[in-house]
Amino acid sequence: KWQQFIEQQKEDPAFPPELESLFQTSDRWAHVFTEIVLVDGAIRGIAISLWFCIMATIIFTGHPIQTLIVMSTIICEIGFVFGCFFLVGLELGAVEPYLWLF
After folding, report:
1. How far is CA 61 from the centre of its chain?
2. Crossing angle of helices 64-88/28-61, nearest 10°?
3. Is the CB of residue 22 less than 8 Å from the CB of residue 6?
């Protein structure tokens, strides 16, 4: 929103040429980017864990239908936990999952 405002101001013919290098900044940006990285890491971690579960189930059982049952159970459990959070009104930000580990 603010970036669009600055871009619109720069396009205005009355905008002073001395301010062409104008940009907006805040100490909040570091927090925002950190949260994005943590959420991406959590999603990537879930995907890698599911991949290893699939491979381990296939290798140790050799039965694709049992692998399907195991994976659907795991995905349903994850969905149930996130669904309960949503129903209660809790938000799962970037920091909360890491706090549960300790």
Report:
1. 33
2. 150
3. yes
Distance between CA atoms of residues 5 and 68, nearest Å: 50
pTM: 0.55
Neighbours of 57 (CB within 10 A): 19
Helix H, strand E, coil C: the string for 39-90 is HHHHHHHHHHHHHHHHHHHHHHHCCHHHHHHHHHHHHHHHHHHHHHHHHHCC
What is the spatial distance between Cα 66 and Cα 73, in angstroms, rounded to a whole number?
Answer: 11
At position 99, the amino acid (one-letter code) is: L
Return the amino acid letter for 93.
G
Residue pLDDT, tens place only, 53-76: 889 988 998 888 888 898 899 889
Position with higher pLDDT, 22 vs 44: 44
